[in-house]
Amino acid sequence: GVPADPSILFRPTIRGHHSNERRGYGLGLSIVKRIVERLKGAVGAENSADGGSCFYFTLLAAPSEESSRA
């Protein structure tokens, strides 16, 4: 599940040599956060009713072509 402070999930985590339990580098969510925030969006995580976790992001809508012509 998601910890009480979900922001820790989005911090880079570097694993040592002996971390054979999981694959990967622990950087994925921190990279997603940086990209989304540079696009003026937000990321988050919450517990799901079924016991899993739900990760989400929001981005601003692109301006319509009509409003960009003005």
Explained architecture:
- With 70 residues, the protein is α+β, with helices and mostly antiparallel strands.
- Helix content is 23%, strand content 17%.
- Strands 1-2 form a two-stranded antiparallel ribbon.
- A hairpin with a 5-residue loop joins strand 1 and strand 2.
- The radius of gyration is 17 Å and the shape is extended.
- It starts with 27 loop residues before the first helix and ends with a helix.
- 3% of the residues are buried.
Element layout with pairings:
Blueprint: H1 28-38, E1 42-47, E2 53-58, H2 65-69
Antiparallel strand pairs: 1-2
Biggest sheet record: 2 strands, antiparallel
Got a strand count?
A: 2
| Major β-sheet strand ordering | 1-2
User: Total number of helical segments?
Assistant: 2
Q: How much helical structure, as a percent, in the residues?
A: 10-25%
Tell me the radius of gyration: 17 Å
Structural class of the secondary structure composition?
A: alpha+beta
Shape: extended
Helix and strand succession? HEEH
Distance between the termini: 47 Å
User: Which blocks of ≥5 consecutive residues have pLDDT under 50?
Assistant: none
Average pLDDT figure: 85
Strand % is 15-25%
